[in-house]
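Re: that chain you flagged

S.,

Sorry for the slow reply, it's been a week of failed gels. I finally had a moment to sit down with the sequence you sent. For the record, here it is as I used it:
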Amino acid sequence: MYACFPQVRIGAPLRYQGVSVFPLFNGFSKPVEYTLAQDAIGSGAVSVEEVSEAGSVPDLLVDNKGDLRVLFLEGEQLVGAKQDRILNTSVLIAAHSRTKVPVSCVERGRWQYRSRAFGASGSHAPPKLRYLLKMSVGASALAARGHRADQGKVWKEVARQQSALGTPSATGAMADTFGAQAEKIADFRTELPYVEGACGLAVAVGKKIVAIDVFDKATTCRHLWERLLNGCVLDALEGDAEPGQAEVADVEELLRTAAAMAWAPAAAVGEGKEYRASEGDQVHASALTLDEVPVHVSVVVGKEALRSKPRPPG
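Prediction finished late last night. Pasting the structure tokens below so you have them in one place:
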């Protein structure tokens, strides 16, 4: 049982064109020291490359030459090398270490070098893709088979969304979907800005909460807010959400569900401890902690989860 699910306060929602973002606040007094992957890659402190000249679709090699540990986030998109990838789970890479990390391909039609090293894209996988990722990776991790995703389902979801949004890609690259929708995504970022002091966010598309992400400190949330929002906007632009809007009570319900689930330990890839939990097939969650501090806790929701549950009176 994972007893340290963060207690958070839910702020007033920001709303724009069917998307609602609820800022989340907590009172962690001892956050973990790390830098974010995008910043570490940009500064040259970290390099991410194929594991060998031939490469391996489900693995990449991270070389942290810096003095701080580095946080890579589940669903974070890396572009370049032989094909674009996303992280299968959140990982803390120790300072001055080389670590092989589990990934999934989000560019099915390319397997040749575009660059030797990967660059950060500034975007994260949409919640519909994160749900498929977390479901298969969670099952793999809890069965002690590593953090392996169902690659076929990942490719299928990337292609499905490109078809739904009318954004074809010569190589089936998720990055091309983000690029084609860049102007619309920018409008959402302008209308749904980071709320000062927030350490997390719950995002709803229409009436349904699709994802919750909570971090150990507000500075992390501030830097990741727009990147996480980018993926949520792609799902919203499909226009298939149930009409209406989510309320604070809906966030409270999902948080209660997540906190009450049977959390089980799974071997972490880098530093810290990892935990996984699910509620049937529809709610999947994971947590990465270090020294009992929840560094990243996330919950993603499938199509039908919690939709038909009556809201408690009052």
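What I noticed first: Confidence is low (pLDDT under 50) at residues 306-314.

Talk soon,
D.
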